[in-house]
Amino acid sequence: MNRFEPKSSLPLSKKDEGWLVQIYGAQRRLLCVLDPSHGWMFLMGCAAGLLFAVLFVNLDRQSASPPAPATVKSPPLQVD
To answer: Comparing C-alpha atoms, which of 2, 38, 8, 4 is closest to residue 23?
Structure first.
């Protein structure tokens, strides 16, 4: 290491890390952190949910039976 290079205690951030969302509360307390993997997992979950919804709707349409013909009911027998 060259003695003229600055010594940094913090590692330099990589340029290919992407985005990072940090959500803070009212007292400047970190509530949650969303990184790119969270976004990709959310999108994959939405795609899987849409795929399952389309598949189950198609299965429901195929299994539907035609409506039964209306039967004429005779009046009940009258007993004296």
So the answer is: 38
Does residue 16 belong to any structural domain of this protein? no
Position 28 in a domain: yes
Q: Which residue has the tokens 């795929």?
A: 51
Residue at 42 is within a domain: yes
pTM of the model: 0.47
Best CA proximity match to 37, nearest among 22, 20, 50: 20
pLDDT digits (tens, 9 = 90+) for 45-76: 999 999 999 999 888 777 766 666 777 777 77
**Burial letters for 17-46: b for 16+ Cβ neighbours within 10 Å, e otherwise?**
eeeeeeeeeeeeeeeeeeeeeeeeeeeeee
Is the residue at 49 inside a domain?
Answer: yes
